[in-house]
């Protein structure tokens, strides 16, 4: 913009050189208004352009940006950015110091499995988090004690029911053929229900050791082989998980039984991916009802509601499999294949 104050300041100097009239001097400055610091010689900042008419010619002078001002501005910006980076770094360290114990506490709680003691990492924590950890450990101990008492009670009930069921089976032998077969079927159903209930409860109380799933899957399929419901096995070698062998065998056995009983066989695939062990069964049956996919794996939920206890089981097989999978750091997923049939995918944590 035009700087008239600069023109008035330069006018005496130019008149001493016979410059002419004042309107022959034009001055422009990038600074708005007069200089902020008033001294004997005003300090001019920014870019200045001066045009002076000398005779029939115009002389134009233009100043360049001051190196000192540029360096000062760069130093100022660098200082501001440095202070901002220092503040952000301190804030990050404080936030990290607060959240790291919480993260360790969450990892410890996540790594705990049903039936196994909940433990706190040995790293030092704040008194508040220590109190929280102690409360969680106490809560976990009470839960494990409750499960232990529940399992003991179920085992006692199963034992007490075993003797009357044996007497009923003995007495059923004196019945006629149709009545004897129906009675024996009911007795077998009651024994299976008791056994599955015990397996569901005991799946949360077990020891843990490295287990190789490759020979286990082959052994279960070989033992349960049925020509009318064949099962194909595609299992990678050396797939190991940390868990309870009997519980894992029960998981595989339940999936095999479901394929043979309700789907005329199928295939089992075992592989490892992204630090997880994947066990997927694909059957040749009609598939799961779409409205039941979210409920599968819950106790007493059958894959086909039209089945009764005699034709469709008691609805505990998938519930037992899900409980075992979750205790081993994984879970169960269900779905239907596009080409027909259902699939059940088990995810387990790899052995360390």
UniProtKB/TrEMBL annotation:
It catalyses: ATP + protein L-histidine = ADP + protein N-phospho-L-histidine. Keywords: ATP-binding, Cell inner membrane, Cell membrane, Kinase, Membrane, Nucleotide-binding, Phosphoprotein, Transferase, Transmembrane, Transmembrane helix, Two-component regulatory system. Its main location: membrane. Gene3D superfamilies: 1.10.287.130, Histidine kinase-like ATPase, C-terminal domain. InterPro entries: 2C_sensor_his_kinase (IPR050980), HAMP_dom (IPR003660), HATPase_C_sf (IPR036890), HATPase_dom (IPR003594), His_kinase_dom (IPR005467), HisK_dim/P_dom (IPR003661), HisK_dim/P_sf (IPR036097), Sig_transdc_His_kin-like_C (IPR004358). GO terms for cellular component: plasma membrane. Its EC number is 2.7.13.3. It is found in: Cell inner membrane. Residues 96-148 form the HAMP domain. SUPFAM superfamilies: ATPase domain of HSP90 chaperone/DNA topoisomerase II/histidine kinase, Homodimeric domain of signal transducing histidine kinase. It holds the Pfam family HATPase_c. GO terms for molecular function: ATP binding; phosphorelay sensor kinase activity. It is a multi-pass membrane protein. Residues 156-352 form the Histidine kinase domain. It comes from the Bacteria. The chain crosses the membrane at residues 72-95. This is histidine kinase. It comes from Blastomonas natatoria.
